[in-house]
Specification:
By secondary structure, the chain is of the alpha+beta class. It has a single domain, classed as NE0471 N-terminal domain-like. Helices cover 25% and strands 31% of the residues. The strands form 2 sheets. It has a 3-stranded antiparallel β-sheet. The radius of gyration is 14 Å and the shape is globular.
């Protein structure tokens, strides 16, 4: 039996992914335009088990202002793996989640 793919909306996959400002900003181009978010905002929003537990315990990640994205690579068609300059390499960010973060990038930058 073939394993099912995770739920995926093709409209949530960006057409272009770029790092800017030395990796301190992630810029994504969606069919309706471009949006971006800071590396610090993305790190603070990480949903990995460690970050989720830290938030639950009242100790959310407090990334440095000069934090940068060290690496970003796609995970299939539905997500991106983001590694940060502070050594955190556990972040899996579904495109749908990134789309929501970048849409609101002015409020979380």
């Amino acid at each position: 039996m073939e394993s099912p793919e995770p739920p995926f909306d093709p409209a949530d996959m960006p057409t272009e992914v770029r790092l800017q400002a030395g990796g301190r900003r992630l810029s994504l181009t969606w069919p309706e335009g471009e949006a971006s978010a800071s590396a610090s905002a993305l790190r603070a929003a990480c949903r990995c088990a460690w970050c989720t537990r830290a938030r639950h315990d009242g100790q959310p990640p407090r990334p440095a202002a000069d934090l940068a994205i060290a690496e970003i690579r796609p995970l299939g068609r539905f997500a991106a793996h983001i590694a940060f300059s502070d050594g955190h390499r556990k972040g899996v960010f579904p495109w749908t989640f990134l789309r929501g973060l970048t849409t609101a990038s002015e409020s979380i930058a």
